[in-house]
What does this fold into?
Amino acid sequence: MTSPQTASHVTTPRPLKGQLALVTGSTSGIGLGIARALAGAGANVILNGFGSPDDIAATIASLQELGVTVEHDASDLLSAQGAAAMVEGAIQRHGRIDVLVNNAGIQHVSPIETFPVDRWDAIQALNLGAAFHTIRAAMPAMKAARSGRIINVASAHGLVASPYKSAYVAAKHGVLGLTKTVALEAAREGITCNAICPGYVWTPLVEHQVADTAKARGLTEKQVIEDVLLAAQPSKRFATVEEVGALALFLASPLAASINGAAIPIDGGWTAQ
Ligand code: NAD
It folds into this structure.
């Protein structure tokens, strides 16, 4: 039998109405796709990340059309203090933080013996450290509210490795460890913490990479996509930011209350192999 509580969740068209969502690294790509999905469900959004003032203003305006408030915080999350201060400022201004999405990330590809130490440090600081600092800062308010959703954007590389990506693979595996630990600590507090593990996702970054690689290697764009970039992805298609956004929205919604400490692949079968 369906409980009245469940029925209201199913029929609520904007399940996050009035909530506050902070999405790191959301001026482009996956983060923006997640911010758009959460805003479409009624959440007021704080964007974070870099970009030209004109591009950021246009992004804010397009999200405001969804009938929510939108702010942009330009904090550089390579700084632990910057990451914590961004969350603390959001809580001070809004009195709440309902959904925290740790998405900002960078990559560097190199054999380990020549891997630049400063790139290792930056990747640990942003891809893993920033998630620790934002969660640490958000947890008191979430515990006080006895409610909260933390979603960490890890990667298929949180579950399996590829050569030459030591810093990224180590950091993303670390994100899954952080996710599970926070999930256990918060399980009785109405808070969940989960990780999304995308394979290759079609973002502006990847789009440019396809064109450049095709030119550099004398291949067609189709060959680059299927034989180079998607060599490990059995579907031979990119996931889309809309698909990742929809998964994040479900994890943020009331009906995902029992999903906790999970690492959910969205990778066309990559990590099933
Ligand atoms: P992207 O480069 O399009 O976006 C990265 C975002 O992070 C941008 O908004 C950028 O301004 C922001 N950012 C970068 N450095 C920052 C800093 N120091 N402080 C604050 N913000 C900063 O990348 P994307 O492809 O959308 O990737 C987003 C996340 O998804 C990353 O964590 C990445 O590892 C993960 N991911 C991406 C893919 C993919 O195929 N695109 C696959 C798996 C996982």
About this structure: The two ends are 39 Å apart (CA to CA).
